[in-house]
Amino acid sequence: MHNRKLILSLKDINSNKKGNIAAIFSLSNGYMGIQASDPITGANDVGTLVNGFFEYSPITYGEPAAFYPKNNQTIVSLPSLRKIRLLDENNHSFNFSELKNISLDLSNGQLTEVYEVSNQGGEKIEMTVASAIDQKKLAFYGIKFSFKPISYQGKLVVDKHYKIERKNNDGVGEVEDPRKTRLVKSISKHIISSDDFREVIKIETKESQQSVTIEGYSTSEKMLTKRALKTGFDITYIYKVSEGVKNKGVSIEQNSFDKIKEHSHKFWEDVWNQSEVTVSGNDEINLALHFNIFQLNQATGRDGKTNIAAKGLTGSGYEGHTFWDTEMYMLPYFIYTNPEFARNLLIYRYHTLTFARKRAKELGIKHGALFAWRSINGEETSAYYPASTAAYHINGDIAYAIGKYYEATDDDDFMEKYGFEILLETARFWREFGSWTEKGGKKQFEFLTVTGPDEYTAMVDNNYFTNRMAENNLKLAYTVGLRLAKSNQKVFDRLNSSESELREFHHIADNIYFPMNAQYQINAQDDSFFSKPVWPFNKTPKTKYPLLLHYHPLNIYRYQVNKQADTILADFLFPETITDSQLRREFEYYETITTHDSSLSRSIFSAVAARMGKVNHAYRYFTDTVRLDLTDLQGNTEDGLHLANLGGSWLDVVQGFAGMQVSSQGLLKIIPHLPAEWDSFQIRLAFKKRLLDIVIDKSQTQIVLLSGDPMEIVINQSQQTLTKIIKINN
Ligand code: IFM
């Protein structure tokens, strides 16, 4: 971050809705998340979220059928660590508050808020709140309140005790917007102990049988204190949130607000050092990009047992579930900047293999595994199979990410312990799930009744994206398997595979059918896509978007209309499978029928447009992408940030504007496309144990090898040996 302080504050966001502010300025550390909710009113507060801490509730089907998932999983809203009660000397509450400013320092993770708080009589005090989350001892959070008189000078009562009460919204509830969360009832909260300086509460879930202990500690004053305001005073609280037996180690007295801030600062220094992405010439974009990367890091489970929820830990939308978003949109950032985080995210999938094997069997596939479309613990939890279980591509997405991780790290240990088993089990799934058919006298392999990424088209035959992902998955299992059979026979044998099984995978991959549209000479999204009429866009008012909230799914399914990038995403992931001219035709066709109702769409159109050299076009998609939550473009930032889109903005800069790809020979390629609006931009990339610093400006591309051995690199089609520094004219 070049010693420049980057601070996000109120003026940088377009909507002052409390829920948006709470989500945007939330602090988290992959383990727990704390929204920047108003500490006085608690308005819109989802409380504390702990990654992986969820409750089951039964899914009620009007018309059940065999092997539908039985339970919802919902991330639990734990009590807020920020809520505070202020009273004047007559015991009247200060319960009105106005946020005057809020600022999040992206260089050290410190959040500062300034509120004007008033009582019923209109007397005012100023409350400044400084907070930070520990990025090393993940159970800890520190918050300091500073009070100053404005028009009230008397004594101030500060109460930080919990009020264990049932909220009005406790109870099972149904919601009409599928992107929101569900309300859960079977949670119990007890006060375990409470004294002058400390309070301990325990929260237990009845069905999932999880528990969390929250310990609050006031470092100087009592938890309930009364002091004269005079020139003002501060009170600091430390919180420790321990799940089950996790985080028992460090006692609350061993930590302090200063140490929490120090740990946070160190963590962010390392992050920026590894993953610098600086845009010169546009401060607004530069800030947004840093914010996105900041939140991406905050959201990520780091223990191999937890993952990234679609909303991270910034809100309870989508119930805290993990989707394919992780592998396709967020993992690339970690693979190329912090491979250790990437490894842990993939290990999470490994830990869910038991559920995935069971799910495959439930779908009638005896050998192999089918990963959950949406879940917290790995068990499928979606009640709407046409846009979940049928999205079998999740298997190929995970396999793709494993392939990319391995390509960038050569991490054999990962492959032997976890990766290959996933590749093998997913390849086995495709083998049994697909079918051999004959078309025009040629035998080919097809995948029937599937849903691709585009959720406005469901249950179709031969979705192009799915078929590509399956092909890649089968080929990866083949190549990695063969290598393993030679290098580590023991691991290979443990998984009961054989060279003939691997050859079968390869044979299938070679014969997968890919639908083409002859009229436009482009890849067809699926077999029946072009037999449908195009959605009547000119008769659809703006107020009817996103379509999913206004039209029955079957109404949407019978038209050509895309919610998000589908075939174009396949083109993005497999650049070597398509010629420039076909890509151009394909982009033009699918762009006109895409609504971008999904936040996962625009970033891909941007990256592909940049690759095509349509840099202005790419830039328009990019500006929407990079500030999507800061502008509340989707209208639901209050439910939590759109984590996949945050990752998508990094993809746009690195894989779009810097044109980064890895060739089929495993070489890093850079093909720069500097947007006209920028003077230059700089990125850092980790690749095969090297750290590279790349600066692209109007006249040249400069690549510096910051650490690691010399390597071969391709810049603008020309292969070079990078020993220290390369400069090439653009
Ligand atoms: O995974 C996505 C899906 O592709 C579109 N709907 C939202 C999900 C969670 O982000």
Automatic annotation (TrEMBL):
InterPro entries, per the entry: 6-hairpin_glycosidase_sf (IPR008928), 6hp_glycosidase-like_sf (IPR012341), Gal_mutarotase_sf_dom (IPR011013), GH65_N (IPR037018), Glyco_hydro_65_C (IPR005194), Glyco_hydro_65_M (IPR005195), Glyco_hydro_65_N (IPR005196), Malt_Pase/Glycosyl_Hdrlase (IPR017045)
Glycoside hydrolase family 65 N-terminal domain sequence ranges: 14-214
Limits of the Glycoside hydrolase family 65 C-terminal domain: 665-722
Keywords assigned: Glycosyltransferase, Transferase
One Pfam entry name: Glyco_hydro_65m
Residue ranges constituting the Glycoside hydrolase family 65 central catalytic domain according to the UniProt record: 291-650
Gene3D superfamilies to which the protein is assigned, alphabetical: 1.50.10.10, Glycoside hydrolase, family 65, N-terminal domain, Maltose phosphorylase, domain 3
Superkingdom of the source species: Bacteria
Family as reported in the entry's similarity comment: Belongs to the glycosyl hydrolase 65 family.
The protein's name: Kojibiose phosphorylase YcjT (ATH1)
Organism of origin: Fructobacillus cardui
